[in-house]
Specification:
This is Beta-N-acetylhexosaminidase. It comes from Plectus sambesii. One of its GO terms (molecular function) is hexosaminidase activity. The protein has about 300 residues and is an alpha/beta fold. The chain folds into two domains: about 180 residues, no CATH class; about 70 residues. It is about 55% helix and about 10% strand. The chain is built from 13 helices and seven strands. The strands form two sheets. Strands 1-2-3-4-5 form a five-stranded parallel sheet. Strands 6-7 form a two-stranded antiparallel sheet. The protein starts with a strand and ends with a helix.
Length: about 300
């Protein structure tokens, strides 16, 4: 195992409990940074005592600490390699970070995303969002690698849930197509038609080249583990968008089922019955799709179906 990632990001409650406060007061000069760095160094030293792996950690908890102290007192430059993460379309906010980290950390990583970062309840795959992030990272590596002895490479991340309290977002079968396209883009160093051709081949698609649009990848059938789940989820997204547009854009809904009508329980039954028929038709369509999707997901995630 060449690398071991200890996480260490978004630790917002550091120094908030009495045990932390007592330790800071007695041994660490009441320094929150020292408390955090001491803990990180302890974890990293433990990993090094058990394996020869290089220890990685997320960069964000190091952004505001005194880098001189981190190195002089805790030897973090020898213990860890920061992984700079950013999942946005543009990485402009990182421009100053490279210069800040370079004198202290000779080895650096980047972290992009292929699924799960487009919203905590985003259940479908929006590949253009993730592709833009990976293309931006490719540009950042080309531009800033000279600051470091080693720009090691990229870690391409994905979530199924933002935390234990949040709902599920993009499941792995839904994100596999995005994973292939973005992995190929990073490996090749750019995004072009060859990525779409190789992606179609790897995912066993009926066409020779993938077609990316706002709904993910549409216009061709592909066969890969979980492909039916992927196709049904994308179909569900497209149908929900179409149905919402048709219902709320309907003149009968706008004219006779407005907030005013609902508030006063007052409408024209003729139009109400017409709207009812339209809604029932769409409900049947969605019911069939959801029932089929439920059966497909059962083959992969038993617990997910209940959620």
């Amino acid at each position: 195992m060449p690398y071991f990632h200890i996480g260490a990001d978004e630790a917002f409650q550091v120094a908030s409990c009495m045990k932390d406060i007592q330790l800071m007061n007695e041994k660490l000069g009441f320094s929150r940074d020292r408390l955090m760095l001491r803990h990180i160094a302890g974890i990293a030293n433990h990993v090094h005592s058990q394996t020869n792996a290089k220890v990685l950690m997320w960069h964000d908890m190091l952004k505001s600490v005194n880098k001189t102290m981190a190195i002089a007192e805790y030897k973090l430059d020898e213990l860890v390699e920061p992984v700079v993460w950013d999942y946005a379309w543009r990485l402009g906010q990182l421009d100053l970070l490279w210069k800040d980290f370079a004198p202290s950390f000779p080895n650096i990583w980047g972290a992009s995303v292929y699924k799960g970062a487009d919203g905590p309840s985003r259940y479908y795959s929006n590949i253009p969002v993730y592709l833009q992030n990976n293309k931006a990272w490719q540009g950042a590596m080309d531009q800033h690698h000279g600051y470091f002895e080693n720009f090691r490479g990229m870690i391409i991340c994905g979530w199924q849930r933002y935390d234990h309290f949040a709902v599920l977002c993009e499941l792995l079968p839904v994100g596999l197509m995005s994973a292939v396209i973005n992995f190929l883009t990073i490996r090749k160093g750019c995004f072009d038609d060859s990525v779409l051709r190789e992606g179609a081949q790897l995912m066993h698609c009926e066409t020779q080249q993938l077609n990316i649009n706002a709904e993910g990848v549409a216009g061709q059938q592909c066969v890969f583990p979980g492909s039916l789940v992927y196709q049904h989820v994308q179909d569900l997204h497209v149908n929900l968008g179409r149905i919402e547009k048709e219902i709320y854009g309907d003149y009968r809904v706008q004219g006779w089922l407005s907030p005013f009508n609902i508030k006063h329980n007052y409408t024209q039954n003729w139009y109400l019955n017409e709207v009812k028929g339209m809604v029932q038709m769409h409900t049947n369509t969605l019911g069939t799709l959801i029932s089929s999707l439920r059966s497909l997901i059962l083959n992969i995630f038993i617990i997910v179906v209940r959620e």
